[in-house]
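User: Show me a protein chain along with its predicted structure.
Assistant: Here is one chain, sequence first, then structure tokens.
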Amino acid sequence: MGTHLAHSPFRPHRVVVLALDGLLPFELGIPQRIFGRAVDGQGRKLYEIVTCSVRPPGPVETDADFAVLVENGPQALATADTVVIPASYELGPVHEEGVLTEELAVALALIRPGTRLVSICTGGYVLAAAGLLDGRPATTHWASAEHFQRLFPKVRVDADVLFIDDGDVLTSAGVAAGIDLCVHIVRRDHGTAVANEVARRTVVPPHRDGGQAQYIRRPVPEPQVATTTAARAWALGRLHEPIQLRDMAAQEAMSVRTFTRRFREEAGVSPGQWLTQRRVERARHLLESTDLPIDQVAAESGFGTAQSMRQHLQSTLGVTPTSYRRTFR
């Protein structure tokens, strides 16, 4: 004789943000802004965001001319589903010697095994000092990457990317890359429709791939130089069609060689990589929001065949189109 199992009550995912002295107010606000805008089809908030300190409730110094009053002590870390550690300019021995302070070690010990860990910018120093990045890929602000690697030789540092998703540990580059990472997490948790709406409300790009370059290596553009914006807009309107590199270059009246160089400088990836990213994003949206057959999703996304789309989704997301649809429908 079986028993009837009631549906589990709705519970938002609990994100606990650790505010450390010397924190950057901009980065402290990113999790609240991004996760706080994520809602389901019934308008329910999908995340609960809590800010805590390593000390009892009280003021935490920032790198600005004001402090913030944090009303939760480190015990909040024990309740987290995800812990986010933004950057701080006063990490002391964490930054200088690669070791945790006693109060930080005690606080981090409260985090339950299996909790997802996220760092923004130099917040990654805290994860590394705790030994949580040993043997794993990670990133941080490009200006700190060389120092970070010297201090933590066991970490596989990649200084060229916006963020790295290593499953239960995710790290991002400086400042705005924290926005990209948090939007990515919403997309990973709840799909492209929810993430794109969060991005739209926050007026940020809906998707910048984690592998995109942190910064443009030619920071000062030549005067009166044409950009590749029109070519990208042209390509987005016909993702379902075969698109040749020479056709994109023709939209800007550039040679293929010049266009490719300019495109990489502006987008951080090659035209081919960018097209694949946009097509994967299109396929994800169709898998989530329509009942189109897999072959038709592949055609509408510009992959041509279901096999081609399956290979790209498998390499990008680690799942098949059918599994992805089942997860988000």
